[in-house]
Amino acid sequence: MSLEDYARYSWDRRRGGWKGLNYLIDLGICKDVHEYFQMFDEIGHPQAEFPLVEEVVNCVHQASGVVVLAHPGANFYNGVDIERLDLLVEMGVGGLECFSFHHDEATTRCFLQYCHSRNLLVTGGSDCHGGFAGRAIGVPPVFAEDLRLGELEGSVLS
Asked: Do 140 and 90 share a structural domain?
């Protein structure tokens, strides 16, 4: 393993993931994304730094985009509650990914009601990310009539 080998390394991007992850998997150093992150937990690593919500919202709005919170019911959000969602909407979040692999039916209904009562966009997706994540395209099934895309609808569904 060397920096030169890593620089020359290429992989089938349909596998999902990123270069470093796939490189270590192909070398047999880890077998999946969970082992990849476990290695870093064992040796310690600096906490990832992310921009503030306000900065991201501002950047997306400047690009004439709409900020949609992906799979808000996923466990790594530590339970997004209505109070926190209200704060995010106040900051400029314009929609929620209501239909998600990470949500059960009750969670989906809760987020749909939340979006409809606040006139927010409703999106959905599989969160597939390729084969490494263990999720499949089309799960959950999402149909155009389930979505609420506002001004984006003509661009997305045409």
From this structure: yes
Provide the pLDDT for residue 27. 95
Sign of CA dihedral 141, 144, 149, 155: positive
Please confirm whether the linkage preceding 72 is cis (ω < 30° from 0): no
Give the pTM.
Answer: 0.69
Looking at the structure of the chain, the number of domains it has is 2
Report the amino acid identity of residue 122: V
Read off the pLDDT of residues 53-73 as tens digits, 9 standing for 90 and up: 999 999 999 999 999 998 888
Same domain flag for 31 and 86: no
